[in-house]
Design brief:
heterodimer; A: about 110 residues; Immunoglobulin-like; six-stranded mixed sheet; five-stranded antiparallel sheet; globular; B: about 110 residues; mainly beta; four-stranded antiparallel sheet
Chain lengths: ~110, ~110
């Protein structure tokens, strides 16, 4: 069974601080995605990483896929209250785009206080 | 352009009852996946439908069944409801063959009492 472990589970920080969220597995994934979910809503895709070692930036968010494609990290610079939410990583075991299911971690609940 | 639409948004059922949840995929998408998200957990894959057939299934009992219609919309049926079935049920659509990302609906919050 493939599992994705996310850490930390909860994170409460002040506006302006930096943070990193980790997503680790003993299994190899063909691709990995990061989603952000707000209460009462479905997850919204932030980024997809496919190549080992890949780094993608989305404004203040930096995503990295591990060289071995078993882990990933999300770094937020100068966090803002609008960044508050549940951050989920999800891996796809099988290659081939949208075919095949996603395996989700339990998520990191981020709270950014003004 | 409408995204993924799920109905109803909230539902309360009694143990032993049956429930049907509905999903309309994003325009242009042909694949529908269903996920169960218990409180404080990440979504768990139930099954995926493509071309009106179940293409892949997660570790869920046969009480969970589904259907996809010619217009790509989908239903999730759960029979003999248990208290543990209380969760947010998410529908995600995608287009087979291109891209990697799902578009999720806002979900149906099912409470079993």
């Amino acid at each position: 069974t493939q599992l994705l472990e996310q850490s930390p589970q909860f994170l409460s920080i002040q506006e302006g601080e930096n943070l990193t969220v980790y997503c680790n597995s003993s299994s190899v994934f063909s691709s990995l995605q990061w989603y952000r979910q707000e209460p009462g809503e479905g997850p919204v895709l932030l980024v997809t990483v496919v190549t080992g070692g890949e780094v993608k930036k989305l404004k203040r968010l930096t995503f990295q896929f591990g060289d071995a494609r078993k882990d990933s990290s999300l770094h937020i610079t100068a966090a803002q209250p609008g960044d508050t939410g549940l951050y989920l990583c999800a891996g796809r075991a099988n290659p081939g785009g949208s075919q095949g299911n996603l395996i989700f971690g339990k998520g990191t609940k981020l709270s950014v206080k003004p | 352009d409408a995204g993924v639409t799920q109905s109803p948004t909230h539902l309360i059922k009694t143990r032993g009852q049956q429930v049907t949840l509905r999903c309309s995929p994003k325009s242009g998408h042909d694949t529908v996946s269903w996920y169960q998200q218990a409180l404080g957990q990440g979504p768990q894959f139930i099954f995926q439908y493509y071309e009106e057939e179940e293409r892949q299934r997660g570790n869920f009992p046969d009480r969970f069944s589904g259907h996809q219609f010619p217009n790509y919309s989908s239903e999730l049926n759960v029979n003999a409801l248990l208290l543990g079935d209380s969760a947010l049920y998410l529908c995600a659509s995608s287009f087979t063959g291109t891209g990697y990302g799902y578009t999720f609906g806002s979900g149906t919050r099912l409470t079993v009492v």
